[in-house]
Amino acid sequence: MEALGGGTGRNVLAIPDFRRLWLVGLMVSVARWLEMLVMGVVVFQQTGSAFLVAAMTLLRLAPMGLFGALLGVLAERAPRRRSLVGVLVLQAAALAGLSALAFAGTLQVWQIAVACVLGGLGWATDNPVRRMMIGEAVGAARMGPAMSLDVIANNASRVAGPALGGALLALLGPGAAFGLGLLLHLVAIAAAAGLRVGLAAAPTRGVPVWRALCDSFGLALRLPRLRAVLVVTVIFNVYAWPCTSMIPVIGQASLGLGPDGVGVLASMDGLGALAGAALIGLLARVERYAAIYLCGTALYLGAMVCFAVAPGPLAAGAALVAVGIGGAAFSTAQATLIYLSAPTELRGQALGVLSTAIGTGLLGFLQLGLLAEWLGATTGTAVVGIQGLVVLLATRRAWQPIFH
Questions:
Q1: What is the pLDDT of residues 202-218, one digit of tens each?
Q2: pTM of the predicted protein model
Q3: Distance CA 72, CA 347 (A)
Q4: What would the DSSP string read from start to end of 161-210?
């Protein structure tokens, strides 16, 4: 198998379409993590409700859970470049509205909720549209290093996004933070408009949408390795990732931090993820991705429990660095394992099913939001993290085929 060394990475970066798709992912990811931090702080300041903070991320995930597989099927029936540009324009319009409302002093929680749903529609298309286009641009043999670089960009954005969001929120208010998100989306639109892949729709052979949708789920059921990857994805998104939504709440309510401090704390997750993704990209080979994927999930869950019970900001930040390393291991391996586990002609649909599996996280955010309201954000986060470790161990037989 091909190593993910520096030479391979340079070869991938030499492809113009990959560079454009990588830039689109970077710009959108910085904007996403920025706005999630800002939205969490604003909602908590207006309502004092940890549940509503979690609900904003739940609404962002809902389109994945409800429409992920459908979007994967539809992505096969339209030129992907057109779909990508259209989604970016929709997200830019939502951010423009949030910025204008914030500057006018009329921003309400329900308006943030609507923007979360629109942002979720864009997020749900990332795997079947942009990442499928990455595969088309670089080829299956270089999908591993391409995804490693894409995850590095995403994790760099998890440092830059919260830090920029927290700083702008503290200095200039939410209007400026959302305005920066709009600017980043305009850069992404310009990059996407110059793509030379994704110009034509895939042949559908007259298969109805509903039949193709059923085939997508049937694919996941009949391929043991693909099914195993999806099992771990569901565990991660139900029990691990939702805990991140409590960072603004724990940072403010338990650690006594202001908006800029919360931004720095949230960026620790991204700092660890950036370092982890870079290390994996330099040292790991594709045949080790299964172990990286599983160990990353376990590390994320355990470190999130440590964050929840941390006695102060320094310990909390250190725990979030470990959370980021685990998240990087999980994310680097995830899309590559899905892409390489599915037949060539069905990769787009498989990535759509992956989006649906990611969307199951809305159940986790709902559970965590309720527990945070009932037990407090600190205890609720620790409980969900421990649940995830127990479920991961209990489902060993279901995810073992990932190693075959």
A1: 655 555 655 666 666 66
A2: 0.71
A3: 9
A4: HHHHHHHHHHHT-HHHHHHHHHHHHHHHHHHHHT--SS-SPPP-TT--HH
